[in-house]
Hints:
By secondary structure, this protein is of the alpha+beta class. It has helices spanning about 50-60, 60-65, 75-85; strands at about 1-5, 10, 15-25, 30-35, 45. It has 3 helices and 5 strands.
Amino acid sequence: xxxxxxxxxxxxxxxxxxxxxxxxxxxxxxxxxxxxxxxxxxxxxxxxxxxxxxxxxxxxxxxxxxxxxxxxxxxxxxxxxxxxxxxxx
Length: 89
């Protein structure tokens, strides 16, 4: 079971989408992206597979707390776009 950083509901891991923060070897360059497969390396946080939970996570700064770092606006825009593409599949 995993908790959604948006709606805070507990759901099965397979029913959620993982958002990861990758780290470079020197620790300076990290990237935040959707991991639809759930198998990529990196620190993970989980979201329900809908845009509403992503909006809630942005408003409550849930992803920032999970990754212990501020997240730039352009990253949120990219995550929103990826989530919309995922929903239309």
